[in-house]
Amino acid sequence: MGFFFMEKKYQIAIDGFSSCGKSTLAKALAKELRFLFVDSGAMYRAVALYCINHNVKIEDSDQLNSILLDINIQFKQEQDTLQIYLNEENVTEAIRDLKVASQVSEVAAISSVRKKLVAQQQKMAESNSLVMDGRDIGTVVFPNASIKFFITADPLIRAQRRYNELRAKGNPSIDFNLVVENLRHRDRIDSTRDDSPLRKADDAIEIDNSTLSEKEQLQVALTHLYNKFPELKN
Fold it and tell me: How far is Cα 58 from Cα 107, in angstroms, rounded to an integer?
């Protein structure tokens, strides 16, 4: 599937807490509009995975800064699905491991990591209309995005969704309470970190999807989008 070429470039920014459906909405919007989808969280997960695999202590800033030079992250469209590669290795599934999830917020809070990945994210928008989801897309990466959404959901509903996802991916013994604690831990770090903390942009449209299906969430977002940019409906 090729991405739709248009002279004007659009940036759709989607922010929100962990496991609230940001990526689900972003993927659906990108498919509907034929825009490039960029999962910024996957990029931070890839860095966290690299640190785990290479025994990098994230509190050791010198060691961390040195390995950033060795990290190359790419997104590749393969048979209608977006795959993420870390130094030419497909890590699409590996970055979803709970061990990675337990460290990704700490990695994402490090300024040197954010600086490297934000620069990559902004460069992607120079030649593509895109949909990007994350924690600071509408506040830092694209403060002048074409449109911004902030996605929320009840914390226990988010935990149940994450629990179901992990079980479906071959983790039948996963403990629900562990998932709840992991989400609380990530929320706390994401919201209180010094560099680009998670917050709703003043001009973002909030969508609480606690009681919405994926299809209903998409329709809510498309309604806002087409009201603002009717030319995209063609």
Answer: 7
